[in-house]
Amino acid sequence: MASNYESSIHGGSDVFFDFSCFYCQENDKNTEAEFYCEKCSKSFCGKCVELHNTLFKKHAALGKKNISQWPETNVDALEQCQEHKTEKLTGFCEDHNQLTCHICHIYNHQKCSPVILIADRVRNLHQKGDFNLLSANLVILNRQLNQKKDDFEERMKSLEQSYNTILEEINALRKKVNDALDELERNTVKELDTLLANMKMSIQTDIENCTDSIKHMTCVREDWLRRKNKSEAVNFTMYRKCLDQSLKTKAVLQAMNTKNERTLTFNPATTIQQTLSSLSGLGQILDKVKQSQPAKIIIQNTETRQEKPNSCNTVPIQHCQTSDATKPSMICDLNQVIRVKSTGSRIYSVRVSSDVKKSISGICGISETATRKLLITDRGYMKVKLLDQSYKVVAHCDLPGTPLSMCSLDSNLVAVALYNCEVHFIRVTNSQLVKDRMLKLQHGCRGIAHHQGNLYITDCSALYHYTVDGGLVSKMYEDSSGSMTVTSCAVSPDGDRIYIANLNKNKLVTLSKDGTVISTFTDPALNWGCGDVPPGLHVTDSGQVLVCGGCTILQVDRNGRQILAEVITQKDGVAKPTSVFYSTHTLTGSLIVGMNRNDDVLVFKEQ
User: How confident is the model over 84-114, as pLDDT tens digits?
Assistant: First the structure.
C-alpha cells in the first residue's frame, strides 16, 4: 500500500505552498518542497530530492532546518501562475486574454501576438486614467446597486399593498355582486308575493260569490217548496223569483267559467347563470411593466431614465394602478353623457368622533389616488379624510387652515389648497394619512389641479402655473374685473384644456394649455352663490367635464361651450354642491357629491 505521502504526490493537490517541488510540478503534481538546491535554484520534495542527489552528487540540498538560506518568496496568491505555482505572473496575452508567467509564454504563447509585460500595461492604464475610471465606475455601480435594492424593497412593499388593495376590491366586488343578487331575489319574491295575493283574492271573491249564490238558491227553493200549493198568483210569483235567481246564478257561473285556470310557475333568467359560467373570475389581474433603458456607466454622471412622451391624443378611460403602469389606449367619446340611476342616491356620513358640530362645514374637495384611495377635504373640521370602499372614514389628518380644494399627484400623494395661502401635500401610507411637505405661496389659494408634474393654482383673480416642487412658471390667466373671478380649476387628462370658474359672474371659462381663452359660458344654473367657497369642477379620466351649479350638476362639452346634460338636479337631493367626483373604483361608475354646510357625501350609481 502506498504511503500517505506518495498518495499525496500522485493524487495532486490544489493547496498553495510557499515552495513547491519543481519536478512534481513538471508532472502536473502539486507537492510541498522540503529541500532547496542553491546551484539548481530548484525546490524538491522528499522523494524527488533522492533523484537529484543521485544525479548531482556535488550539489548540497538544504533542508527546512536551513530554510533561512532558501530564497524569499514574494509571490502573492493573486500574482501566482495557476499552471506554474512557483512562477510569478509577468505578462498578458491579448490573443487569449490571459495572464502568463515566463514559462507559459515559452511553452504556450510564443506564436501569439507580442505578449505585453504587465508592468507596461499597468503604466499605460495609469497614463490613460483607466484605474481612476474603473474606481469611479465601481463607486457608481455600488451606488446604483444600493438604489436598485432600495427600489426593489420599496416595490416589494408596494406590491404587498397592491395585493391587499386588490383583495379589498375583490371582497367589495363580491359583496356588491351578492347585494345585487339579493336585490334581484327580493324583487322576484316580492313579485311572487304580489301575484299570489292577487290570485288568492280573486279565488276568495269567487268562493264568496258561490257561497252567496248557494244561500240565495237555498232560500228560493225552500220558499218554493213551502208555497207550491198556494194560489196560482203565489205560484207564479215564486216561479218568477226562482227564474230570476237561476239566471243570476248562471251569470255568476258563466263569469267564473270565463276565467282561465291560473297557476304559478317560475321561469328563471338563464342569462345570469350563463354569464357567470362564462367568466373565469371576478375580474382581470394585470401585470403592467414599463420598459426602461439601462443606465450607462461613466465617470461624470449617469444617464437618468426619461419617460417617453405620449404622442397619443386619445384619452384613457380608467386610472393606472401604479405610476409605472402603461395606461390603456381605449378611445372614449368625450361627449358621452353620464347618467345616474333614477333610484336616487345613498347618503354616507363622513364625520368622525372628534368632529364637533359646526355651522360652517361642507365637503369641498374629493379626489382619488392612482391606487384608488378615496380622499375628501372637510372644510368645517379642517381635515383630510380617507374613505374605504363603503365610504367609511378610516383615517384623517388635521390641517392648519381651511381647505378649499384638492387634487391627486401620483399613486399615493394629494395636494390640498388652504385658505391661508398654503398647499399641503398628504401621502397615503398603509391606510394612514401622513403629512409630506408644504408650499407657502405669495398669493391666495382657492383651486388646485395637477397634470404630469404641473400644478395649476388659482387665487381670487388669477391662474398660476407651478412645478410640483413649488417653482413658479408663469401667471397664465388673470381677470381683474372683480373679486372671486378665478376660483376653481380643473385640467383635462391630455392637459390641453384648463377649466376655471368665475364665481362673481357665474361663468365657466375654458383655456388652452398656454392660457388662451377658448370659450366662456354662462347659464342661470351656474348661480353658485356659495360665498367664498369655490364651486365644484371635475374632469373624469375619460375627459367628461362636470360643473357644480347652484342646485344641480351639469355636464358640458370639452370646449365648455354648451350643456350636454343635467346629470343631477335638485330633486335628487342636491343643494349647493361644492365638490363632485366620478369614480371608476367600483363595478359601475359612481358619482360622489359633497355639499356646502353638509357633513355627508351623496353617492349616485351610474346607469
Answer: 877 888 888 888 888 888 888 888 888 887 7
Residue where the block lists cell 469611479 = 136
Question: Among all chains, which residue has been given the C-alpha cell 380622499?
Answer: 375
pLDDT value of position 5: 33
Q: How far apart (Å, rounded) are the C-alpha atoms in residues 536 and 179? A: 31
Average pLDDT over residues 554-580: 90
Q: Report the range of poorest mean pLDDT among 255-259, 275-279, 486-490.
A: 255-259
* Category of 529 on φ-ψ map: left (φ > 0), alpha (ψ -120 to 50) or beta: left
Contact 85, 30 (CB under 8 A): yes
Distances 29 to 10, 13, 25, 45, 158 between C-alpha atoms, Å: 7, 7, 5, 11, 57
> Are the beta carbons of 400 and 410 closer than 8 angstroms?
no
> What does the DSSP 8-state code read for residue 216?
H
Answer for the pair 606, 590: CB distance below 8 angstroms, yes or no: yes
CB atoms within 10 A of CB 577: 27
Task: Output the CA–CA distances (angstroms, integers) from residue 432 to 163, 377, 384, 423, 480, in the order listed.
Answer: 17, 15, 11, 19, 41
Question: Which domains does the chain show, CATH number per domain?
Answer: 4-128 (no CATH), 133-258 (no CATH), 346-605 (2.120.10.30)
Write phi, then psi, for 290 (nearest 5 degrees): -100, 125
CA angle 44, 47, 52 (to 5 degrees): 55
Q: pTM of this prediction?
A: 0.49
Which residues, 6+ apart, have CB-to-CB distance to 315 below 8 Å? 331, 332, 334, 492, 493, 494, 541, 542, 543
CA–CA gap between residue 204 and residue 472 (Å, rounded): 82
246 pLDDT higher than 50: yes
Average pLDDT in the 226-246 region? 76
Q: How many residues does the chain have?
A: 607
376: pLDDT strictly greater than 90: yes
Three cell numbers at 384? 383630510
The C-alpha angle 505, 506, 508, rounded to 5 degrees, equals: 105
C-alpha cell at 439: 408650499
Cell of 289: 411593466
Per-residue pLDDT reduced to its tens digit, 317-360: 333 333 333 333 333 456 788 888 877 788 998 988 887 766 56
Separation between Cα atoms, residue 407 and residue 376, nearest integer Å: 10
- Beta-bridged to residue 545, according to DSSP, are 539, 556
